[in-house]
Design brief:
The chain is α/β, with parallel strands linked by helices. It has 2 domains: 3-138 and 247-300, 3-Layer(aba) Sandwich (D-Maltodextrin-Binding Protein, domain 2), CATH 3.40.190; 141-235, D-Maltodextrin-Binding Protein, domain 2 (3-Layer(aba) Sandwich), CATH 3.40.190. The protein is 42% helix and 14% strand. The protein is built from 12 helices and 10 strands. It has a 5-stranded mixed beta sheet. A 3-stranded antiparallel beta sheet has the order 3-10-4. Strands 1-2 form a two-stranded parallel ribbon. It is globular.
Length: 304
């Protein structure tokens, strides 16, 4: 940790402790429908995915601790929905993932490794936006199968799917059908034909149920999702780079000044993949709200 980062962490800790003690507001409160946030309010958004909401809530609580007013706009959809809002300037800060975000703007990118993806993403981000420091924490898209299906066809990699002789159907959010790592990408890179079934729960219980019921035989599930372990599912290794490196990265507007960015960078530096999996498990297994999970993570990491 640099001297600057350490100072930022200490500042964050002291302000969060002070403001938490005197705050009586609902941490999940947001602007009333139709209301516009004040000009100095930081609007924090999240995907319609519990993991994204937890990270966004960590950002929001840290910013409030530092004296900022925050407007939470959480669970507002998938990338095709919220990126135009960010580009239009209505959202100031958003937890993102390096590879998928780069492919949104550069579908034909050849970058695959973490540092290459981050460097190209930094150069590609549109005017008025920038990515802050990428976190060590990763949450990677994966093509996942049941243990029984993997054993039946001796599957460990995506390349092994070329030996499967039954029709293959991939399940995931509808936008996954046209993304570069969807069926077209599988056909181009691995020579595997996939049908597609839309299941609009972000790799959640409906997707897992469809996989176990055999209405699909491949599912798009994030690698940090605890349901993989709970349901004895098998993510197939991507040996040819269909999926880009995917580190948690904050996407920020010009409203995020350097001092504010340092608070968020401190959070990113502290978060690990194991911690992210544990955060997700607290949401899925314990059914805890994002605000509670975020508060306890900040305290555990001595940022309170």
């Amino acid at each position: 940790m640099t001297h600057r980062t350490a100072l930022a962490a200490l500042a964050l800790a002291s302000t969060l402790s002070l403001l938490t003690a005197c705050s009586t507001s609902d941490p999940l409160a947001s602007s009333p429908a139709g209301a516009q946030p004040a000009a100095d309010t930081i609007v924090v958004g999240s995907q319609d995915y519990y993991s994204s909401e937890i990270i966004a809530e960590i950002y929001a609580q840290a910013l409030e601790a530092a004296g900022h007013d925050v407007d939470r706009q959480f669970r507002i959809g998938q990338r095709e929905v919220y990126i135009p809002e960010i580009e239009a300037g209505t959202i100031d800060l958003f937890p993102e993932y390096t590879g998928p975000l780069l492919q949104y703007w550069e579908a034909e990118t050849t970058a695959r490794l973490a540092d290459d993806v981050y460097a190209e993403l930094s150069a590609t981000t549109p005017d008025g936006l920038r990515v802050l420091d990428q976190s060590p924490a990763t949450d990677q898209n994966s093509y996942t199968v049941t243990r029984a299906f993997a054993d039946q066809w001796n599957l460990t990699t995506l390349e092994d799917l070329t030996h499967v002789t039954v029709p293959l159907t991939l399940g995931g959010n509808s936008e996954g059908q046209t993304r570069p790592d969807g069926p077209a990408g599988m056909k181009n890179l691995y020579g595997v034909d996939l049908a597609f079934t839309p299941i609009e729960d972000g790799g959640g219980p409906l997707t897992v149920k469809a996989l176990k019921d055999q209405s699909i035989n491949l599912a798009i599930i994030y690698s940090a999702d605890p349901s993989i372990q709970h349901n004895d599912l098998v993510p197939l290794y991507d040996t040819r780079g269909l999926f880009l490196a995917s580190h948690v990265v904050p996407l920020a507007s010009d409203a995020i000044d350097p001092a504010t960015a340092e608070i968020i960078n401190t959070i990113s530096a502290h978060m690990t993949t194991d911690q992210l999996i544990a955060l997700n498990a607290r949401s899925v297994d314990e059914q805890l709200p994002a605000a509670t999970i975020a508060t306890e993570w900040l305290a555990t990491n001595k940022l309170t």
